[in-house]
Amino acid sequence: PEVRVFAPATVANMICGFDILGFAVEQPGDEVIMRRKQQPGVTIKEITGDDGRLPLEPSKNTVSACVQYLLQALNIASKVGVEIELHKHMPIGSGLGSSAASTVAGLFAINVMLGNPLTKEELLPFCVEGERLACGTGHADNVAPALYGGITLIRGNEPLDVVSIPSPKELVAAVVFPQVDVPTRDARQLIKDKVLLKDAVTQWGNIAGLVAALFKEDYDLISRSMKDILIEPTRAILIPQFYEMKEIALKHGALSFGISGSGPSVVAMTRDEQIAQKIADSIQAHLKENEIESFGYVSKV
Ligand code: HSE
Fold first, then answer.
1. CB 139 less than 6 A from any atom of ligand 1
2. Is the CB–ligand 1 distance for residue 188 below 6 Å?
3. Peptide bond just before 264 cis, omega within 30 deg
4. Global pTM exceeds 0.90
């Protein structure tokens, strides 16, 4: 039998909620095709779309390593053999949850192949381990929305406590990836591990405001709340044209603008698909003028 799974890209942090908020987009995403094989063990048959950057060696590749880890946890690693094809349809190191999408697709596929022994809640910790392998920390704010869909809040990490939050009907995201590489590992090392209490108060006011706004479908409150005073000033340095892109987005009516995940992708939130498209196009045109290639995606949240 063959199992095919698509897992979506995700916008972690939702601008104000570092490591605790994230949402899935409709496109792009990664695809895993998994087939049974006679011999026990997990092997990678093929990876496409990665420009040869990802390891094919099963113990080094995040997807196969996580699948193997799950088989071991279920005590069936010596009996089950699977072969994996990974088709990446999004850039690596982009701030779009690329590693998370691959990991979630792989773990979802093996779970389906085994007849769904695990619930999504039980599958999630394995996905988090994948993130730890990929970038050194087990943040769940990409894997949770990639697995559950929609918007998720990571209320706690130990133990994992994930809350799904409703998506306001009109909320649309414009995501632009300027083609420069910013590995999450590096983007995490850059940020300070101490914050001032007064800044923390501002930030958690914004996070609480955003969560309330999502439930109330209050777009003005979304706009007021989706601001990041803690991380953005530091990480923006790694993103070419960041403040110029922000100005373009806000000028065209974005509710909010900020970094997607650890960057360099950026996200503009809107309540209108046409506005979102206009913002993506204008930002991409601006980047082109500055000799930076980019990809743009518009998606319901
Ligand atoms: N919350 C993580 C970070 C997401 O900002 O580093 C990484 O995609």
1. yes
2. yes
3. yes
4. yes
